UniProtKB/TrEMBL annotation:
One MF annotation (Gene Ontology) recorded for this entry: peptidase activity
UniProt source species: Lentzea xinjiangensis
Subcellular location, record wording: Cell membrane
Name used for this protein in its record: Exosortase/archaeosortase family protein
NCBIfam families reported in the protein's UniProt record: exo_archaeo, exosort_XrtP
GO cellular component: plasma membrane
Primary localisation category: membrane
A GO biological-process term: proteolysis
Record keyword Glycoprotein present: no
Membrane topology: Multi-pass membrane protein
Key words, A-Z: Cell membrane, Hydrolase, Membrane, Protease, Transmembrane, Transmembrane helix
Listed InterPro entries: Exo/Archaeosortase_dom
Transmembrane segments: 81-99, 111-136, 148-169
Length: 172
């Protein structure tokens, strides 16, 4: 019995290389990604906040509640970015396309939906933290918003994005 290795089509190989390069880019340029992510947080907060908001891109920090009794700055650290939740999805997507080139379109669609979901969930986590700081004060609000509720939002949101990715990529 011989096992035939099926070669991937040229466009699929290019897609795999682009996805792996994107994954490497997320690792090596995570600072740029975090800057974009915290800038998005600042833009969202500017729209919904009645207090001042300022973003310092060089520090990947958003300051909110400016002019209120509870101003606070949040720094987007490597542990808090959505980049490292998107990274495994990209690598798995590349592997799926390499192994089954004909599902390339489904995998790319699933990857787009799941990546967007992870980014939205991370923005929701930031908004949750901001809301709790505003409601409960800096000490209690930050503790509940970052350590407990924020972690739960990330875990459940990441799990939902993973389920959506697998379902969309593998359905017929």
């Amino acid at each position: 019995m011989t096992l035939a290795v099926r070669r991937t089509a040229f466009p699929s190989r290019v897609t795999v290389v682009v996805l792996l390069a994107t994954a490497a880019g997320l690792v090596f340029a995570h600072r740029l990604y975090r800057t974009a992510e915290i800038s998005l947080s600042g833009a969202v907060l500017s729209v919904i906040s009645s207090h001042g908001v300022a973003v310092v891109p060089d520090r990947q920090t958003v300051y909110f509640g400016l002019g209120s009794d509870t101003p606070l700055g949040l720094r987007m650290t490597p542990e808090c970015t959505s980049a490292f939740l998107v990274l495994p999805l990209i690598v798995v997507g590349a592997a799926m396309i390499a192994l089954r080139p004909r599902i390339q379109h489904r995998v790319l669609t699933a990857l787009g939906v799941a990546a967007l979901a992870v980014v939205v969930v991370n923005q929701f986590r930031v908004l949750t933290l901001v809301g709790l700081v505003d409601w409960l004060g800096v000490d209690t609000g930050y503790y509940w918003g970052h350590t407990l509720l924020g972690s739960m939002v990330s875990v459940f949101g990441g799990a939902a994005a993973l389920v959506a990715f697998v379902w969309l990529a593998t359905r017929k």
